[in-house]
Amino acid sequence: MYLGQFWTEPRLAFGLKNRTISLGGAAAERFWLPDTFFVNAIDTKIHHMLFTNKKVWVNLTDGFVMLSAR
Question: What is the pLDDT at residue 9?
Answer without folding.
Answer: 93
